[in-house]
Amino acid sequence: MSIHEIMFFLFAGMIILFSILTVTSRRILRAATYLLFVLISTSGIYFMLNYQFLAAVQLTLYAGGIVVIIIFSILLTSHINHRFEKIELKKSIFTIIAVAAGAILSISTILSYNFNTKVLVTENPDMQLIGTSLLSYGKNGYVLPFEVISILLLAAMFGSIVIAKKEKSK
Predict the structure, then answer these.
(1) Are residues 102 and 133 in the same domain?
(2) Handedness of CA 154, 150, 103, 22 (dihedral sign)
(3) Per-residue confidence (pLDDT) for residue 167, from 0 to 100
């Protein structure tokens, strides 16, 4: 087993472990911290695939942006010790069924797909082409994804504030 395979399995294991901890943690700050570890591990896989730009975007926008917004929103609303209520057994059973169905569907789709390997010829980057692509909204443009990400950041901020501002019911 090569070092790349070991690192891949390490990152994949961390993603699985911290994803489960994120959705099962009853403390909101711990869940946000676990989410940070998931996003950092995902960027580690991108670095292994030599997708440095995507890994950098993953670190700066998701790990840096969303998680920091969530944590600051929680800290600013002073509900840091908020604990979510225990989940009912009925909801847990339906959740397990949904997760199992999603896992079976995903694994069967991945195993049935015929992955072809290609050798890509690398080219020298053209800075004008990169700048045009970043500012274009047409084919191969990146303006629309960046706008979607900004809306996602705004939604994450609003969602974290709503969760953190919930008052205890009497």
Answers:
(1) no
(2) negative
(3) 63
Residue 94 sits in the same domain as residue 131? no
Give per-residue pLDDT as tens, 60-73.
877 777 777 777 76
User: From CA 169, how far away is CA 151, in angstroms rounded?
Assistant: 31
Half-sphere exposure of 102 (CA within 13 A, CB side): 6
Q: 62: Cβ–Cβ under 8 A, 6 or more apart, which residues?
A: 39, 42
Please count the other Cβ atoms lying within 10 Å of the Cβ belonging to residue 66: 21
Residue 158 confidence class, pLDDT cut points 50, 70, 90: confident
Read off the DSSP letter of residue 27: B
What digits encode the pLDDT tens for the residues 106-143?
Answer: 999 999 988 887 777 777 777 777 777 777 777 777 77
Q: Verify that 102 and 127 share a domain, yes or no.
A: no
Report the predicted TM-score, pTM, of the whole model to 2 decimal places: 0.58
Q: Are 11 and 48 in contact (CB under 8 A)?
A: yes
Whole-angstrom distance, CA of residue 164 vs CA of residue 162:
5
Residue of 72, 56, 77, 62 lying closest to 152 (CA atoms)? 62
d(CA 47, CA 161): 32
Same domain assignment for residues 76 and 92:
no
| Both tokens assigned to 3 | 């070092």
Q: Annotate 104-134 with DSSP letters as a single string.
A: HHHHHHHHHS-PPP-PPPP----HHHHHHHH
